[in-house]
């Protein structure tokens, strides 16, 4: 599967253990409660070497632009700052977030397609979550 298979507009349809994952990451109670109830729409695009992931919801919009295998400073949707790198590994887009501040926690986020759905597996401090998306028409 090429990375271009991730391209498109995706609607969240299932979320497993998301609040616990956010809690493990150190996200505030208020932000966790809102994030757990909104239904974000993801738009993934590729333009030459640049890959963009846009997340739009009634709570907040956020955009991440990156190049594969190039570390960059990422501002997360809740305001935390990490050193992040995205890699294409075994037909999956693997994002590794490394903490800059001592009280932030590293996280790994893996995006892949299975059965025509986009799966996003997240792990922080041993807590795992999966969000599933269907492609918009």
UniProtKB/TrEMBL annotation:
Membrane-spanning intervals of the chain: none
Which InterPro entries does UniProt cross-reference here? Calycin, Fatty_acid-bd, ILBP, Lipocln_cytosolic_FA-bd_dom
**Which superkingdom?**
Eukaryota
Q: Which GO terms describe its molecular function?
A: fatty acid binding
Keywords, sorted A to Z: Lipid-binding
SUPFAM superfamilies referenced in this protein's UniProt entry, alphabetically: Lipocalins (SSF50814)
Q: Which residues form the Lipocalin/cytosolic fatty-acid binding domain?
A: 7-135
Query: Which Gene3D superfamilies does the record match to this protein?
Result: 2.40.128.20
- Is Amino-acid biosynthesis among this UniProt entry's keywords? no
PANTHER family, A to Z: FATTY ACID BINDING PROTEIN (PTHR11955)
The entry assigns this protein to a family as follows: Belongs to the calycin superfamily. Fatty-acid binding protein (FABP) family.
Name of the protein this chain belongs to: Lipocln_cytosolic_FA-bd_dom domain-containing protein
């Amino acid at each position: 599967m090429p990375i271009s298979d991730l391209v498109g507009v995706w609607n969240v349809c299932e979320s497993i253990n998301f609040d616990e994952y956010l809690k493990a990451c150190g996200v505030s109670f208020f932000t966790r409660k809102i994030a757990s109830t909104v239904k974000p729409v993801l738009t993934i695009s590729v333009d030459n070497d640049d890959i963009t992931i846009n997340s739009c919801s009634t709570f907040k919009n956020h955009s991440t632009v990156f190049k594969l295998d190039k570390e960059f400073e990422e501002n997360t949707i809740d305001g935390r700052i990490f050193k992040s790198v995205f890699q294409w590994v075994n037909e999956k887009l693997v994002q590794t977030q490394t903490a800059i501040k001592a009280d932030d926690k590293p996280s790994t986020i893996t995006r892949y397609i299975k059965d025509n759905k986009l799966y996003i597996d997240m792990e922080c401090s041993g807590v795992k979550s999966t969000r599933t998306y269907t492609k918009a028409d």
